Amino acid sequence: MMKIRTLVLDWNGTVMDDAARALAGVNEALRDQHLPPITRAELDARYRQPIAELFRDLGLEPDRAETAWTAAVTAASAPMRPTAPILLRACRESGITVGIVSSAAEHVIVEDLRRHPHVPAPDWVDGAIDDKARCLSQRRHTAAEPMAYVGDAPHDIEAARAAGIAAIAIRGGLAAPHALEESRPDLIINDLAQLIDHLAD
Q: Which pTM value belongs to this model?
């Protein structure tokens, strides 16, 4: 894979280790619509993106569920993946542009960054994105290339491919490992620090 000059990251599950927060958000949406909670194992088995598809699968009205989900997720904190700060500092030191393209609401991302003031902020954030492929394609027109997108779900890999950029999958999110492999990314990693060797000098 060519050396990356613009690195775009998904947020939840990729930068943030937010499985517990995601489960709390889903269960708040279920509670709000008078349905029983689910377990982490059930969430892992049924998880899909965009999040509206998961809500429909759970029998929820998606717009109302997203409101409850967003409120719960905004109120809860989550840890970053341990090597996210290392990667972001390496990007800053190397002059690599870092962007965020995520279905998470922008204010959720901003609040997460506020809770981690020691971590270099990305150069730009595109939140509440339903069509990641379109957003990435638009960003590609003004970005230094090569450009790559890192995500923890097959949906992210498909979006990167549709935008014509390198697709990198990271294990450890809510998506099943076999689903990531079947999405045929250009690279699969276990740890964000593995990307440092792929940054342009």
A: 0.92
